[in-house]
């Protein structure tokens, strides 16, 4: 998991996620051409907002915490660049599952 | 039902489902060509999230539990690959029925 | 009403319905060609889910019960096949009316 | 108002309505060709459901009752055939007005 | 304001409105050709429903009453013909403003 | 701010606004051709409705009052003509900001 | 952060934001052609509205305050010009994250 040069605090029920990069070499050390690299739908939670704010102003904390490995939806999320790396901001409820 | 190498915990009201594969041989052992295999809308529940989180932050557990045989809608669900097998994540309310 | 080989328990506010088949012979026993058979918007309720789950987690039972004859909307519903027969799953609120 | 051979009980907040047929003769008894007959947006309420079911499961009875003459919207409603006559099922809130 | 031959009771939060007709003569009595007549977005409230029915079944009476002069939106409303005159049914909340 | 010949009372959470006209002369008195005049997204509040009516029938007064200078969205609002001048009716929540 | 000649008070849950301008020179002082300047999705909060007004009329203050550095979505927001500079008005919930 990357160590960012600045602290990102997602707003409300948002989570900052980094998609796990597809494998670039085979087990035996041969480079896989970029087109043949399989896109992964797994990522790590880098930061979590304070939670969902209800109509009554109550805050419901996320099920997720920093460091969680998660299953990401194929589409969606807002791409942002921090320290020249690609991250995604999702709403907590868009994350499909945790991987233990 | 498959034994996964990692534990998948669906988020909130989501359920992890595996569609039952269409029959590949006839009763008498003759292979059915792939095009003639009938797609099935039945599956098994592999894992269940903690439940629907209401506006008040209350959790309503799903009617479904691991191992349930279910009727799946023709469309929808998020396809995910775990251990090189295809699974689907549905919201609990998208599942059509349980089969006892 | 058909006797199914397996028990189907519709999820939540869903109902399992079988559309009544159009008449295939006239009163005097003459077969009606398939194209001239009039599609019917009537059906029988085969199974009923436990009911609508409200935002507060309360369950509101359906007005419908197994065996009810109902008026079906022209479109909608999820087609499912059980024992090689066609059935439809509707949300309780999509059913137009009961026929007594 | 027609006397139906079967009792239709509309579901929830639905009402069964029959559109008033356009005049087929002039006052002096001359037949009006079908194309020149003016479509009417008036109808009679034939049957009324038990009412709107709220999120809390409370039932709010309709303003309408059997026999009411009503103004119908130009579009919408589900057409159904009972005893070979055309009827319409509307949600209570789609009816525009009562005519006293 | 027209005197109708029948009483129209709008359903719920609906109001029956008659659009004010564009001027057909100039101040000096010259007829304005129909194409040059300016469409007006003003009307009179002819009848008012009992009010908005809330989720709890409470009725919130309209701000409007019979005889009010109102500003109408450019689009929307359901056109109905009563006594061969054109009227419009709007939901209370679609009316833009009262003119005192 | 214009003095209207009639009182306009916006319905509910609506506000009557007049867009500030673009400058027609330069500081030195030279006329700017109409095409070069810059459209302004500022306006004055001419009249304010009684407020938002909640699901419970409670009225929440607007933050805005007559005479407020406001930032208007680029699109939206219902154009109305009063005393041959152009005005706009917006819902209170569509106004972007107050300018003090 | 700019010092505006007039005070802008965003309505309700809106925030006034200024996008950080892309770098126009390299570290060594060479001008970057406008096309090569990278658009930034970071900005500063210039002003914050009083907060979200709930259905019950309660005000929920924003997580954001004047001076906060924020991550902005790629699209959305209403562009406004104040003192000949470009600003954006966003709803509080559209802001992706704070940068500390």
UniProtKB/TrEMBL annotation, chains A, B, C, D, E, F, G:
InterPro entries the UniProt entry points to: Chaperonin_GroES (IPR020818), Chaperonin_GroES_sf (IPR037124), GroES-like_sf (IPR011032)
Q: Does the keyword Nucleotidyltransferase apply?
A: no
What is the documented function of this protein?
Eukaryotic CPN10 homolog which is essential for mitochondrial protein biogenesis, together with CPN60. Binds to CPN60 in the presence of Mg-ATP and suppresses the ATPase activity of the latter.
Please give the name of this protein.
10 kDa heat shock protein
The record's similarity note reads: Belongs to the GroES chaperonin family.
Gene name per UniProt:
HSP10_1
Q: Which UniProt keywords apply?
A: Chaperone, Stress response
Lineage from the top down?
Eukaryota, Fungi, Fungi incertae sedis, Mucoromycota, Mortierellomycotina
> Mind listing the GO molecular function terms for this protein?
ATP binding; metal ion binding; protein folding chaperone; protein-folding chaperone binding; unfolded protein binding
- Gene Ontology cellular component list: mitochondrial matrix
One of its Pfam families is: Cpn10
